Amino acid sequence: MGSAVRVLAEATPATRDRYVDLLRVGSLAVVVLGHWMMAAVTPDGVGNLLAVVPALQPLTWLLQVMPVFFFVGGFSHALSYRSLLSKRPQGSADSDSAASADSVYAAFLRARLQRLLRPTTVFVLVWGVVALLVQLLRGGAGLTGVTLRLVTQPLWFIGIYLAMVAFTPPLLRLHERYGWGAFAGLAGAAAAVDVLRFAAGVPYVEFLNFAFVWLAVHQLGFLRADGRLGTGRAAGTGSASGTGSASVSGAGSAPGAGLRALRPLRVPALLAGGGLVGAVALVAAGPYPLSMVGMPGEKVSNMAPPTLALLAHGLWLVGAVELLRDPAARLLARPRAWRTVVAANGVAMTAFLWHLTAMLGVYGALLALDVPLPEPATAAWWAQTPLRLAAAAVLTAALVAAFRTFEHPAPPSATTPAPGSGPLAAVGATLCLLGVLGLSMVGLGGLLEGRTALLIAVPVSAPAAVAMTLGGWLLVERAGRGAAR
Known about the structure:
Elements: H1 2-10, H2 18-38, E1 39-42, E2 45-48, H3 49-52, H4 60-63, H5 66-87, H6 94-136, H7 142-150, H8 155-178, H9 180-199, H10 209-225, H11 243-246, H12 257-262, H13 266-285, H14 308-323, H15 325-332, H16 335-345, H17 348-368, H18 379-403, E3 415-416, H19 422-442, E4 452-455, E5 458-461, H20 462-481, E6 483-484
Antiparallel strand pairs: 1-2, 3-6, 4-5
Helix pairs in contact: 1-16, 2-5, 2-16, 2-17, 5-6, 5-8, 5-10, 5-14, 6-8, 6-17, 6-19, 6-20, 7-17, 8-9, 8-10, 8-19, 9-10, 10-14, 13-14, 17-18, 19-20
């Protein structure tokens, strides 16, 4: 693997924005570490450290970094879709152009879903077999039962990301026409939903913010791709390392050069400052909780469904990471640092999928060995924490070594999607989205009893969710492959 990583790192084009890769892997690493730290496990189940020690909840304003991942997703999706569009044959008639764009959509969905669903499907199938065996052997009590319910919960992130992939083409067109106005429309819709929810008491309207809040953050990635956040150049127009802008403020530069060098930081600074002030004001004066992650038993969560406060939090995080772009770019120009990022990105999704398995496996081993589990947040618990984290990291690395091959990109298709394949691909993506979200909600416990969970007011079982995911993926594959060239 080391030689392959070195080859990939050395082959990196000069125009690649390496900071985006760092943000992608860094945000997932923070999520993994946060999950490991927040788990307050006892022999009877799993609690939340933030509920045990509420004074730690302000840390979620730094550690809730999913908005950064979705922001980076918007940037990457814009570049990927535009690249496919640029390679399509240009038809002479409007109908030819529409059919060509339709086939590009199918190819785009197929390529993106493969990278997400190959490791996810393996994860679900392995755990499905384990869950079935456990229940056939009359297991499933205590921590084992909790594990069967918990291991699929992070799949909500995959489901939301699938929605972003599916909505990329229409939202990218809105961005190209309205720019910041498209983002403002989504943010305004998120605000309107919260007004209807909290002021007017309209039932179920809050679930619309799963779309409006996360798609607004995703839209910021489009703005970054076009250089509208003020840092660096627009994607694809030259080096994105940021080193060029840093050089203008050196000794002997023209008067005012230092101020010109600071101008690109105005938009990120406004996003960071405005988002932070907005989030503080909303939490202080509104119905929003302090924690930016879900808490057990709370009446209102900033995460599920997302709120306007979480969107403001996302704005401040996006602005903050953009302010760090130039120093990070200088770091990533070093070969060893860049090789580390390349290696981590190659297994990031696999590590994310299996990290809870590793964490719960460590606790299970401690219980099996009769090692006492201290009460969460006690001095003994904190003293044991570094050992638990190290053990979880080692076990995660072992699981990554076993399953990383499924994250490798599939070879390019030798076929061209047929005209009219877009709707079929969209139906498949919708089924995948619903299946993955359903599985994240129902878990893998109670398979033999037919356990269900409500997904948009419809009861869904784990087998049905898996069937929807696999059926949807097959439709996307069929639409995206098309006919041989």
